Amino acid sequence: MTEWPDLASRTLGGSVVFANDEFFAGKENLIKPGPATFAAAEFGDKGKVYDGWETRRRREPGHDHAIVRLGCQGIVHQVIVDTSFFTGNYPAEISVEAALAEGYPSPAELAGDAGLRWYELVPRTAVEGNSLNSYPVDDRRRWSHLRLSIYPDGGVARLRVHGEIVPDPAFLTGTIDLAAIENGGRISDCSNAFYSSPANLIMPGNARVMSDGWENARRRDAGNDYVVVELAGKGLIRRAEVDTSYFLGNAPGWVRLTGHGRELLPRTRVQPDTRHRFRLDSERPVTQVRLDVIPDGGLARLRLHGELTPDALADAKARWQRTASPPGVPDSGGDFPDGVTVG
Known about the structure:
Distance between the termini: 41 Å
Strand content: 35-45%
Mean pLDDT: 91
Helix content: under 10%
Order of helices and strands: EEEEEEHEEEEEEEEEEEEEH
Number of domains: 2
Largest sheet: 8 strands, antiparallel
CATH topology of the largest domain: Jelly Rolls
Shape: globular
CATH class of the largest domain: Mainly Beta
């Protein structure tokens, strides 16, 4: 598996912190997990109800925009502007800019009052209606916020920002979840993801429903299903948590954990709808872990608690500094339309 996570997703803690207009449909819809929906007969006081962000028709020069705080800082590889169900009311063009901000700036600070600079990731370009408009990004710097501009107005169902998480090394010290996506863990291989993605296993928080975990198809052969997790870095795993919450008649019978061919947790029986916690006696650090579910079945979450090695932590610090936006690089020159201020 090579798909990068959606850095803007609400599931990862993303937020739409500002939009200059959201007359017909709210800005928060942009980062909702799952595809947009459409009910042809659903109308409200302001007209047709859309599952997305929709601004009013402009009668003056300028364009509309929204600012998204990424759930995790990272390197953006691809931006998807999803205009599903927007047919006569989608923007003609879009552009995407990015910024790297310290801490948690207010919308007013993001507007540039504190000297924050915006850099172009996707130049102003055409959009198709009712489509997944995909734009590759070559810039390999780290970002915390994105600004989506639509020209001149219109509606967007979803904004997806697929990229590579760059975790803050200040939060990688001590005992951490080495598998967690927010710490830099990712799924690198999976035998079967028929019902739901294995990436759910390493998402923040507890699963809310069965579909918020990983579920494979029923096996009809002698093998078993598995996922491989690339850890946040080389580390020593002390404890594992295998959570089958919400999986009742479709939980695995047994699980096993291995790292680089070494057994971390032998084949162990598990129960449906249960958070299982195991102490591990591993004495050698690993960079990846394979989780076998035997013979098949679904899991809600996988947690692997331990410590990074000193070298891995040093690498994380170097990467954090290396991917920061360098000062003095010319910005995109994009200003907020019509002298709009936010706050």
